[in-house]
Amino acid sequence: MTGSIVRPYGDTTGDGMVQLSFTLPVPHDKRAEGAALQLARKMGLEPALLVHAKAMGPDFTFFVVYGSVTHLVDLDEVQVIEREYPLLSAKDANTAIRKLLRRKLVVVGACIGTDAHTVGIDAILNIKGFAGEKGLEYYREIKVVNLGAQVLVPDLVARARAEKADAVLVSQVVTQKDAHIHNTTQMSAAFREAYPAGQVPILVVGGPRFEEGSAATLGVDRIFGRGTTPGEVASYLVHEIATRKGRS
Amino acid sequence: MTSPARLELDPEVVRKARALARRAAAPVVSIAKRHTTVSVERATLRLAGLSGADHERVPWVNHLVTAVREQVGLEHGVTTPVYDALLRGEAADLATLAQMASSGNVSFRLPTGREEKAAQRAATRGVSLGLKRIDAARRTRERLVNRLGDPRQKPWIYLIVATGDIYEDIPQAQAAAREGADVIAVIRSTGQSLLDYVPEGATREGFAGTYATQENFRLMRAALDDVSKELGRYVRLTNYASGLCMPEIATLAGMERLDMMLNDSMYGILFRDINPIRTFVDQRFSRQIHARAGIIINTGEDNYLTTADAVEAAHTVTVSQLLNERFAKEAGLEDWQLGLGHAFEINPDVPDSFRLELAHAMLARQLFPKAPLKWMPPTKHMTGDVFRGYLLDGFFNLVGAMTGQGILLVGMMTEAVVTPFLSDRDLALQNVRYVMNAASGLTEDFHPPRDGFIQTRARQVLGEAVDLLERIVHDSDPAGDPPLLAAIADGTFGLMKRPATAGKGLDGVVERAPGYHNPAIAELDAWAPDRAQRHTAAAAKGARR
């Protein structure tokens, strides 16, 4: 294998092997199995091996397919947003905040809209933290105000103003019909209305369903996805505050 | 349900735990008896037969309660001024009265003397129709269970549907029943717990769930009756009596013959920031209705473990179960109606996590031997690795099988990824069936040694639970609130601080006046489960036959 072209790895370099499971809305018979193989071929599995087919009720069949994909992956063409700031330890983040602000950094967090699932915001804010990292409450130089679930946007704005928040963290875990997008744009618009230009707190949203790179469209400064740790969020906030300080 | 004693718990400690729970609950029950809420009053009107909504979908019960509250207040109960208005000929019936009241065309008054008595008698007659309807639904359930039978195995298999559209939910629920589900839960739209009204009619738009409405209840129950007949076993239906409309939803569920309701004593306070007094008042009414309706409640202890560490917080589950049991018994629920919750949420990377889970599950089983415990699957440590998640669910099922749980909520390997695919549900049920088939007999063989890891851990958790209950009953705050409310206010539970003077729905709480009259509460307070027990006993005899 030379350079930037790779294929999936089953048990031999370059074999291209993948596994796949899916359901077709057809009764289980020979035709159904043929249909599954046809789908696999159209997905680029050649040859495809149908290893399991099982009827699920009278109208559906479940399949497991193994096969070699014909597609190649060109690593040079892969585009990702790399973290543009250094990852700081809690200690370094505290020191940086002290130096930058000479006071505590105030973070207000909430789940907005109808979402009642605080797992995301709690993982970032609660001392307990996430993935072995302590949450922002653990940082000596960060004051955390966690408003919990189903917070109304006007309440969030009012509380952010009352607390003189430097940053507002909003979590959207469970969403349907793009509710997370509507809620976020509504939130960012409310902040822009309530604050003079250039003084809006750092607006951060987190959740598994946000698209990386859509921050500008949503009117927020940063999006965090699945698996984000408190340390990443703290490091980002320090970085963003430093950038804003440099600007003014 | 019988379950052989396997843990050697000190009966003195168990007695003490229950005594402390009783002591913590008593002053809160007395607060509940001294207040009413807008939702309790609306539920009372629903029992009297008022239903429907205006063209903006605001229910008539909301209009009528608001109008009465504005004119004469609710501290005497809504029904006395309402039935007085009917007796005075302001309108021919409740629906007309509500419509007129919504446009400000009725003047209410607080009748006195003979007129007050007449209004209260009329209200009692009106409300008794709703209670009779609930009694009839209970008898119908008993008849159907008698004829069709209960699930052949324990635990009962509990599956969730959640499409947002009742007409999509119905075929999914029927398919789930055909695949082996004994209990179908229709998840509610996420916003509903904070709505201060019950939506009306069949609904097709919900967020991550379907609205609980009377019509949705009726449609789903009818669909499950059909599939119950087809399958030859009674398939149960579950919904949620939580949030701001607990009393009304409980009432609608009782009338439409739902079989189980999620109903936790403190969940709304801690996790939804609903005012504590509102919650306890609403909860007592809803549980009295559940008791009368023969509905099994499911409590929400799993939530403590998803927000805190499942090992460190294990005793908070026990404390919550004891409080839930106490509040439930006070409201007239019987042991067989207590689906006390607990969950498999210990981090799988913790050494001996499975042994710890077994210890906790056995402790719950032994503390509440006659309750159909509800065993909840892993969610917090489901990572998106569906293969590992499937294994975790297998171990969860094994604990359920080995410890004789009553209701098993089927875990999905797609937890935290997507709403389950058809195939995910099928695979999850295969997982359950395999484990039940292979290992449910283990309840007979599995007796952990007295001083082994499991028994020691169970006793430790019980000890910690007693310590926490001690702290709760000795808690206090400057306002002189009952200790349990003080404990809720200072963050004893799940680190969430919920003072009795804050939270959603507080403006719907009203202190009762000395002349408060609510015919539903009067009848529910006087009702004893004995009368219903006759039916249940008859049903049980029939089932044995």
Automatic annotation (TrEMBL), chain A:
Pfam families given in the database record: B12-binding, OAM_dimer
InterPro entries, per the entry: Cobalamin-bd, Cobalamin-bd_sf, KamE_N, KamE_N_sf
Occurrences of domain B12-binding (ranges): 104-248
Transmembrane segment boundaries: none
Protein name as catalogued: Cobalamin-dependent protein
Automatic annotation (TrEMBL), chain B:
Organism expressing this protein natively: Intrasporangium calvum
Taxonomy, superkingdom: Bacteria
Signal peptide interval: none
Protein name (database record): Lysine 5,6-aminomutase subunit alpha
Pfam hit, one: Lys-AminoMut_A
D-Lysine 5,6-aminomutase alpha subunit domain: residues covered: 7-521
